[in-house]
Amino acid sequence: MATVTDTPIRIGVMGCAVIARTVSRAIDLAPNATIAAVASRSLEKAKTFATANGYQQSVKIHGSYESILEDPDVDALYIPLPASLHVEWAIRAAESGKHILLEKPVAMNVSEFDKIVAACEKNGVQIMDGTMWAHHPRTAKLKEFLFDSDRFGQLKNINSCFSLAVDEDFLKNNIRVKPNLDGLGALGDLGWYAIRAALFANNFELPKIVAASPGTVLNESGVILSCGASLSWEDGRTASIYCSFLANVGMEITAVGTNGTLCVQDFVIPFEETRATFTTCLKSGFNDPWVSRPTEHSVKTEIPQEACMVREFARLVGEIKNKGAKPDGFWPNISRKTQLVVDAIKESVDKNCQQISLSGR
């Protein structure tokens, strides 16, 4: 459980994307963080965003990204810019001594992310990606079950998907379908979560082989709108992921072990802010598979998962700022592994579903 620092961590919002509205509220709800500033490339846009999101009068308004980097009253930056801009602005943020909460995908490829991490390490700043579900208390309960050798046993397979049906305007104009902005498309935006779930269930051990599934849908600019992939590990564990802008809502995880089965219906965005559920089924038999009926488990949280994320990020920053602690390397490590799998799936798509080895990467 994160502890509250005496002085809230001062976070600047660097960019006025739609997701920044959600994270702005999360910063307000986190007990150890406060919004100190907001920046856009237009002063007017920054002012409008601040007003629309109920920012306090004390919040500084910056009309450029350069300006917020120089603000001495900002400890950390939340960066929801398009992925193609991350490598430039995250590095500049690190060089300015700002801790970084970076939206996903963290970069256009792992080479770019390695440069970001190197800058963070050189300047002693924390970096964490914006995968909110990782911080929900339900996720800790999922981990308990998945790594319980008696109840779950050895993982054999995990399926994870994240799909959202978008409209025609989105398909024509959204940054997620533009190769020069968020050019990884549905893979980077939605597939990131499904990949993270597969890695999470495998204790973040990278798969040996990754292969895109046939049927990837690209737009006329070559951006992925829908795709699937298979992942396999040395000992026979497998995973399948699916992501799409062209299918109805799906946010499921199904993990099957030698002794148990885990199902989550809403792993990315829980149905309710303060309560989330999952089901488990234990030790069924061949002749009577439902001898053990699925059991529903409920996990409560006082604040939504995005505020849990901000709270943990602010706790880590506070430890560095107030106690001289070192940045926690766990978060950039799992970001890098997620990006590696994103890159491998993209490479496989580009090579007509060829198997891609992750050995040594």
Description:
The chain has 361 residues and is an alpha/beta fold. It folds into 2 domains: 9-132 and 305-326, Rossmann fold, CATH 3.40.50; 137-303 and 339-357, Dihydrodipicolinate Reductase, domain 2 (2-Layer Sandwich). The protein is built from 10 helices and 16 strands. It has helices spanning 18-29, 43-52, 65-69, 86-95, 110-123, 137-146, 168-173, 185-201, 305-323, 330-350, and strands at residues 9-14, 33-39, 60-62, 76-79, 99-102, 127-129, 155-163, 209-212, 217-218, 224-232, 238-244, 253-257, 260-264, 275-282, 295-300, 356-357. Strand 10 (224-232) and strand 11 form a beta hairpin. The two termini are 33 Å apart.
As for the CATH topology of the largest domain, it is: Dihydrodipicolinate Reductase, domain 2
**Poorly predicted parts:** 1-5
Q: Give me the secondary-structure category.
A: alpha/beta
Strand content: 15-25%
The outline comes out as globular
Architecture per CATH nomenclature, i.e. the level-2 architecture of the largest domain: 2-Layer Sandwich
Helix fraction bin: 25-40%
CATH-level-4 superfamily name of the largest domain: Dihydrodipicolinate Reductase, domain 2
SSE topology:
Layout: E1 9-14, H1 18-29, E2 33-39, H2 43-52, E3 60-62, H3 65-69, E4 76-79, H4 86-95, E5 99-102, H5 110-123, E6 127-129, H6 137-146, E7 155-163, H7 168-173, H8 185-201, E8 209-212, E9 217-218, E10 224-232, E11 238-244, E12 253-257, E13 260-264, E14 275-282, E15 295-300, H9 305-323, H10 330-350, E16 356-357
Parallel strand pairs: 1-2, 1-4, 2-3, 4-5, 5-6, 7-11
Antiparallel strand pairs: 7-12, 8-10, 8-16, 9-10, 10-11, 12-13, 13-14, 14-15
